[in-house]
Amino acid sequence: MNLNRIAVVAAKDLRLGPRSPIFLWVLILPVLLTLVLQVAFGSLFDPSPRLGVFDAGESRVTQLLQGADGIEVQVVSTAAEVKDLVQAHDLDAGLVLAADFDRMVADGARPPLELYVAGESQAADRMVLSVTVLDAIRSLQTEDAPVTVNVVGVGDEGLPIAVRLIPAIVMYALMIAGVFLPAFNIADEREHQTLDAMVVTPVKLAEVVTAKGLVGFALAIPMALVTLWLNDALGSRWPALVTVIVIAGLMYTCIGMLYGVVSKNIAGVFTLIKGTGIVLLGPAIFYLFPDWPQWIAKLFPTFWVIDPLYRVSVENASIGDLAGSFAVAAVVIAVVVVGVAAGVRRLRSRLGST
Amino acid sequence: MIVEELRHSYGAVEALKGISFEIRQGEILGFLGPNGAGKSTTIKILTGQLAPNGGRGSVLGFDVSADDPRLQAQIGVCFEEKNLYEAMTGAENLAFFGRLFGIRRLDSAALLSRVGLADRADDRVKTYSKGMRQRLMMARALVNAPQVLFLDEPTAGLDPVSSDSVRRLIREEADRGAAVLLTTHDMAEADELSDRVAFLNDGELYAVDTPENLKLEHGRRAVRVRVRRGAEVTEESIPLDDPDASRRLADLVSAGQVVTIHTEEASLSSIFIEMTGRELEG
């Protein structure tokens, strides 16, 4: 293996990248998929209710509202501005608190409270804001509330579907960059016979295949990180996250190289990916359906990188927690590498025979 | 280049049945044969793309079966298929292959100028005509100033201007000292360019010799004279070994009756058919 020749081939692929639809697809698809899924299941276009507050004094209500979950609070400098912003539907509601509002409430003086509501705001947002404001004001009173509310959860406590979709999206990002790109690039060179032109130069077929894998790996890592970031799932354990992503990228890239060396042409790559997509994406489906027997997911080779990814990004697992998964992943990668080496030898003999 | 008893089979099909030949530095060997004769298989073996089943090939002292990068560093290959990077420019194609040979600063402009593509250097190959692509293929085969050139049908389907340009390059490379293995269907091209020709058919070599020797060996030492007598034009064959040949020819010329005179030497095409029993095309 000559690193300089590998770098030459990889640099050529990276330079040609912007001229290749598949390369652009690698960069765009994970972002697009994230946006689509966030629209369908997430909160991208379903923002929290927005409340504007003009506080003429220093009311505790303002502090309480700012600390409340599920609403966005914007402190505004004049009462007129609150009204204007609500009227323009830049806010769902606006609250004007008098200078000595807290004292008057404490004295039982029942001070006036101006709460503007935007005509275009949603009923659910109005209700959330009204209840939150009333709750904050009630807390100023020294008396107990007339009733005690006990919140009783029913049904299993599960993660939102947007979170459970994260493995699928990240796997897709890894699959497109790590599997599809190297496989496509190798098959494309073979189909257009540029591979034949390369192998009569000092470059070895194994070096060409390695270069294709490197390009896929170099794109898979940032695309997986970007996808996690877009889904707010980077977690807080960076060393573990980076380790998982690198191992996952390596596994997917090796699979991509394997697909590339066994496919006669680009159509062959598509057929192979369509035929084996379930093996690559299978584990992600199990996160969507927690009622399914989860042990089945462990039968898929990609489970051993996707599960650590999920546990790091969602459950903040450490590297130590994931050692077992990493060991299995390393075995899977080793097996695929042996397959790639055999595939390269087979392709070398096929190139001369066609 | 030394080839001894080279054999190769694709399954049950014997593509090469033990062929032997040599090419010296600065020599052009025209490899002639119909499709399926084994020409491309020979090139694939000698360029290290295919392992032979038997015999041996040695190029510049390297065993071709060894897949040695030191050999590949000194050869140039022009494929019959136009396997260029279409999304890259002509200059980018050459620069990339130059880097594969370890040449960091290739003078692409000079190479492109040699093949008449200097003004299209920065255009993508997909905008090139067939002739331009073929000339770029030739330029690519020359990026490493190879000691041995393998040219597989380098002028197939080209217009006369592009063909002439490619032939001139081939001759220049041979004059520089490169050994050239040239496969072609074009007998006139083989006759014009080759120092020697090899007839290959069905995996067997039928002859390896200079075009001149083959024509002398298989042709007749005679001239065919077309003569006008009144309104009628007739043909007359005069054997050159006939003691009266000079007088008969002089009589015809002095009588002012000669329309045309041609030698009756054999063409490479007719010799090929005579030796192999097959037409060269197809």
Q: Overview of this structure, please?
A:
The complex is a heterodimer of chains A (354) and B (282). Chain A is built from 14 helices and four strands. The mean pLDDT of chain A is 85. Helices cover 64% and strands 5% of the residues of chain A. Chain A is elongated. Chain A is mainly α. A four-stranded mixed β-sheet of chain A has the order 2-1-3-4, with helices on both faces. In chain A, helix 3 (60-66) packs across helix 6 and helix 8 runs antiparallel to helix 12. With 282 residues, chain B is α/β, with parallel strands linked by helices. Chain B folds into two domains: 2-215, P-loop containing nucleotide triphosphate hydrolases (Rossmann fold, 3-Layer(aba) Sandwich); 220-264. Chain B contains ten helices and 13 strands. Chain B has helices at 39-46, 69-72, 90-100, 108-114, 130-141, 160-176, 187-193, 211-218, 245-254, 268-276; strands spanning 2-10, 13-22, 28-32, 54-59, 62-63, 75-78, 148-152, 179-184, 196-201, 204-209, 222-229, 232-239, 258-263. Chain B has a six-stranded mixed β-sheet with strand order 6-7-8-3-9-10, sandwiched between helices. In chain B, strands 2-1-4-5 form a four-stranded antiparallel β-sheet, with helices on one face. Chain B has a three-stranded antiparallel β-sheet with strand order 12-11-13, covered by helices on one side. Chain B is globular. The two termini of chain B are 28 Å apart. Chain A binds chain B through residues 2, 4-5, 8-9, 12, 15-16, 19-20, 192-194, 196-204, 349, 351-353, and chain B through 10, 44-45, 47-51, 67, 69-70, 72-73, 75, 77, 79, 81, 83-88, 92, 96-97, 99-102, 140, 144.
